[in-house]
Amino acid sequence: MKQMNILGKIFIVVCCIGFSPLCACSEDSTTSNSDADTDSDTDTDSDTDTDTDTDSDTDTDTDTDTDTDTDTDTDSDTDTDTDSDTDTDSDTDTDTDSDTDTDSDTDTDTDTDTDTDTDADSDTDTDTDTDDGTTPSSGCGAAAGLSSGRTTIQVGDLTREYILQLPDNYDPNHPYKIIFAWHPWGGSANQMEMMNYYGLENLADGQAIFVAGEGLDYQDNGLGWGNDGGRDFDFYHAMLDLFRENLCIDESRIFSVGFSFGAMMSFSLACTEDSMLRAMVPMAGNTFASGGCENGTRPVATLAIIGTADSLLDGHRQAVDIFVDRNGCTTETVSMDPSWCEGIGDNYLPCECVSHQGCDAGYPVHECEYNADHQPAPNPGPIWNFLSSF
Which phi and psi (to 5°) does residue 156 adopt? Predict the structure, then answer.
């Protein structure tokens, strides 16, 4: 009998050292614990959980552990949890982006573990990017920080004024076109508002934001855009920065429209590398009075309109030639049909629009000349069609 007791102890030692599946061991030789774990789960992703639990318990209570792991994974993760247990659990997880694992274990201890793991890969980003090529400003997604009406803005040591017109049903999540309408010499921001921003606001049907800046006195003969020391360009950039921050605008669809001194402002502003202008419609202008045209290469799509009896005709054509070159066009032109001339009154005939050939994609140059003296273009429909094509 003594020999058999010795042999039994040797057998127990061998089992514990070799981790034989045929016997159960504990650090206390006086207690024999037997765990039976039957876990059957179904994995639908590539997550693998390895639990190695080693606990030493001296009681014979039978408890049921319920581990609830909620993992939100958008990739393949491998989690390794190391606990001390004498259990050998066979866990099969079922993960479908949000995994809930329920392990039913019969142990000699009482544990209740609730783990909730949320991976950084499951973050939800909210942005206002769209698939239609728009470039939303930082003001998108928030309530408008500005409202329609006349207001002031400080530009250096000057207090400048402008009129802002938002769509009636302004949507803070919709990036809007923005159109700057520059008044002629002796005009005003109020004039632009009364002229419906050269007739474009009604045609826009809520698809654009309109701005009319007010010029400064020029040669004691009315408000204009002399741009002394670049102060009118500074005014433009101060307004644009304010609108980008407080409104939802499309930074890839910023337009400039103007007549006479307003056309000169459009030409000269488009010459700058940082104007952000996508297209312009100068009506009877040049690059002489608003600071000239700085050297540069930035293209701007152009629809230039002028009367054939206008005293600014030569300077106007020279300004257009600058953008013929910048937009990669050739001097070869073809008559456009249909064109801006469609629907114009008989008193403005003859009228012809030509399109320069070979221009870079998306940067056309169209020239329209009609029978008239110095006046704004009388046909706004094709102007809106041109701008809305971008």
Answer: 65, -125
Distances (CA, A) of 170 to 176, 209, 376: 9, 9, 29
Answer for the pair 201, 171: CB distance below 8 angstroms, yes or no: no
- The arrangement of strands across the sheet holding 114-118 comes to 98-107, 63-72, 114-118
CB count, 10 Å around CB of 118? 12
In 3D space, the residue among 84, 114, 106, 104 whose CA is nearest the CA of residue 39 turns out to be: 104
Phi-psi region of 128 (alpha: psi -120 to 50; beta: other; left: phi over 0): alpha
Question: By the 8 A CB rule, do 272 and 384 touch?
Answer: no
- How many whole angstroms separate alpha carbon 82 and alpha carbon 95? 21
In the chain, domain spans: 149-301+312-328+375-388
| Cβ contacts of 374 within 8 Å, gap of 6 or more | 260, 284, 307, 310, 311, 312
Which residue from 300, 319, 302, 297 is spatially nearest to 310, judged by alpha carbons?
Answer: 319
Confirm if 261 and 185 have CB atoms less than 8 A apart.
yes
Per the CATH hierarchy, to which homologous superfamily does domain 149-301+312-328+375-388 belong? Answer: Alpha/Beta hydrolase fold, catalytic domain (3.40.50.1820)
Candidates 226, 211, 219; CA nearest to 161 is 211
Query: Which pLDDT tens digit goes with each residue over 208-256?
Result: 999 999 999 999 999 999 999 999 999 999 999 999 999 999 999 999 9
CB 120 within 8 A of CB 151: no
Alpha-carbon distance 71 to 94, whole Å? 10
Q: Which run of H or of E encompasses 278?
A: none
H-run or E-run covering 309: none
Identify the CA nearest to 104 among candidates 51, 77, 67: 67
Q: What is the pLDDT of residues 288-345, one digit of tens each?
A: 989 899 989 999 999 999 999 999 999 999 999 999 999 999 999 999 999 999 989 9
pLDDT tens figures, 292-308: 999 899 999 999 999 99
